[in-house]
Structures are given as structure tokens and as C-alpha cells.
Amino acid sequence: MAPIHPLVLTVAILLDILFGDPHYPFHPVKLMGHLTTFGEKVCRRLPLPHRGQGLLMVLGVLATVAITTMAALSLASKIHLWLRWAVEIYLAYTALAGGALWREVEGITRLVKEERMAESKKRLSWLVSRDTEPMGEEEILIAATETLAENTSDGIIGPLLFLAVGGVPLAMLYKAADTMDSMVGYKTPQYLQFGWAAARLDDLLNIIPSRLTALLMTASAWYLGFSPPSRVLTSVRQWAPMHPSPNAGYPESAMAGALAIKLGGPCYYFGEWIERPWIGHGEPPDLKAMEKGIVLSKVTFLVALLVILLLHLL
């Protein structure tokens, strides 16, 4: 696995910014979802403990994604170098989710501003696993800001990092792990044991991206004049360890510190009221803070891209 060529990465990023993440049946991430569903059905029939079933599913999905990705790249290379580049560009484009993330969060912000609450809750439900129906404006903006922060790590910085380190094959494996976690990595009776391997793999792969995102957000907040680095880093040190997730707390606490807001708090998950700690000082995000958060996410991405391109030149 070799790092992605800067030209391939640049074209993929431009496609992501221009077109986002369109929905169609044969999108690689959607195929990973179908593969996960199939793998779950097969592995749950095996005479193994639930953790063992889940582990086999994870290994099977990863192996299938790795083999098909390498086969596609190898076949394209045999036909023509330009076809190889085209396949790389397409797969790298599908691994990135910045364009779609910003469009969705901007859409939610616009709907809240227009007081179209039912529509904003429906759109938010596409992005988060918590129950959106009981939410008011404050809860909608908290959830949208949290998913913006977390997905800046999972959907932008993480894929960028794995593309830079191991090219398209490594990025596809990262997306497969992320997809499996989003489908089975829940602490519910159905998935607590079966989804253990998928959740732990996702935690492992996001250790570096989540912390790198917090550092990049710190630099971006300073550049934008939102907050001095000391305040953002203090927020990360104080609040990130309190988050239920070992990784999500880093980008969320960084964004909370950068925007001088608080995130988290109690909410409904799968019909159950969950007491979550508050993260950050200040008031919950309002529309102005939400808009600043979108700008912060975009600049964080640009800073990460600049760092990758500079390192390539060294």
C-alpha cells in the first residue's frame, strides 16, 4: 500500500466539494453496508459466542473489501494507467464525506432558522442515532454541532490520513470499519456482544484521527480568531476524557472550546433516556455558533490538506 498521489487526492477532493456524496445503489459505502448485513445474517447462524460471530463478520468484510479494492486497481492498471488513476480518484472521492457533511449541516441550520422544526429533525435523523422526535431547537443544534465535530474527524480527517499513509486500499478498509461500527457497534442488547469487534476496531482506527482533528481545530480556531489555542487545548484536556466514546470527545471538546459553547447533555437513544455529561463551558450552540462551526470544520480540512501536501514535497 503506497500513499495516494497528490494529483489524485486533489481531484477527489474537488469532486467531493462540488458534488458531495450522491446516493446511488452501487456506491462503495452502500455496498459495504449490504456486505455487513449479509455477513451478520451468515455469522449469526454459526455455533459460536456472539463476540466470535461478530469477529468473523468483521474479518470477512475487511477481507472482501481489501481483495475487491486491490483487484479493481490491478485490473485497471493492466488496461491503462489513466484508468487506474480514474478508479483511484473515484474510490478516494467516495471515501471523503466533507461535502455531504457540510451540505447536510447547513441544511439543518437553514431549516431551524426558518422554524421548520419537523423537517430539521427528519434531516438530522439521517446523521445521528439518537431519537430526534422529542428534540427542541436547542437539542437539534447540539446534536448537529456534535455530528459536525465528530464527522470532521471520521468523515474528513480520518480518510485523508489513511489516503495519505496507505492510499485507496487503506482508506477503503477504514471506511469499511466505520460502516460496520455505524451498523452494529451499539451498546444495545442485540449488538452489545455481536458488535464488540466492530466497535473496538473503529475505536482503534480513530485514536490518531480524533486527536489530530482536535489539534487541527485548535490551529484553525486561532487562525479564524475564534479562540486562543490555550482555551481550546484546555477544553480538550478537561472534557474529552468525560465523553462515553474514547475518541469522539476530542473533536467535540475542541469545537466546544473553539466556539465557547457546551455540547453533550441528556438525550433519548433508542427510546431510552440517557444521562450524558456536558462538554465545555458556556451556553449551548445557537445558530451563529452553528454557522461558525461549519466554517471551523472547513478550515480544519484545509489545514489538514495543506499539511499533507507540504509533507509530500519534503
Mean pLDDT over the residues: 95
Count all strands and give the number: 4
How many independent structural domains? Answer: 1
Roughly how much helix do the residues carry, as a percent range? over 70%
Q: For the record, give the distance between the C-alpha atoms at the N and C termini, rounded to a whole number.
A: 20 Å
Low-confidence stretches: none
Order of helices and strands: HHHHHHHHHHHEEEEH
Count every helix, treating DSSP H or I runs of 4 or more residues as helices: 12
Question: Strand arrangement, largest sheet?
Answer: 1-4
- Structural class by secondary-structure content: mainly alpha
Q: Largest sheet, if any?
A: 2 strands, antiparallel
Radius of gyration: 19 Å
What is the percentage of strand-forming residues?
Answer: under 5%
Overall 3D shape: globular
Descriptive report:
- Helix content is 72%, strand content 3%.
- A hairpin with a 2-residue loop joins strand 2 (267-269) and strand 3.
- Helix 9 (207-224) packs antiparallel against helix 10 (229-239) and helix 9 packs parallel to helix 11 (249-259).
- The chain has helices spanning 6-19, 28-43, 50-79, 81-95, 98-113, 117-125, 137-184, 196-205, 207-224, 229-239, 249-259, 287-313; strands at residues 263-264, 267-269, 272-274, 278-279.
- The chain has one domain (6-313).
- It is mainly alpha-helical and 314 residues long.
- The chain has a two-stranded antiparallel sheet.
